[in-house]
Amino acid sequence: KESNGPTNSYAAISQVDRLQSEPESIRKWREEQKERLEQLDANSRKQEAEWKEKAIKELEEWYARQDEKLQKTKASNRAAEEAFVNDAEDVFPGTEWERVAQLCDFNPKSSKQAKDVSRMRSVLISLKQAPLVR
Prior knowledge:
It is built from four helices and no strands. By secondary structure, it is an all-alpha fold. The chain folds into two domains: 10-90; 93-133, no CATH class. Helix 3 packs antiparallel against helix 4 (118-129). The protein starts with 7 loop residues before the first helix and ends in a 5-residue tail after the last helix. Residues 30-83 form a coiled coil. Pfam families: Clathrin_lg_ch.
């Protein structure tokens, strides 16, 4: 079988002929370019490894901070629950609305809710001032 171009068996020979026939300056440039690219690849691998180490370290620090915040939150919640339970045990007749008032935030400026709770607030305040008679 004959073909117009070089076959696979002759491809290596034609490439060697091409490398031998190219000028010295082009061969030198090709070798320098190959070295430069290898150096850039090595630098990028090194930089990638540094970034990975930095990311791992930052992630560990973030987890440590999150764990610390979680422990603080747990401690404050336990203290608040203990105080709430202690207050719940001190039940006296006629102090129901005072206990409700302690649990509710009646300051409209500090409310972080998006809903309008002004009517409920006014109802609770009026009930605190004039409790229902049974």
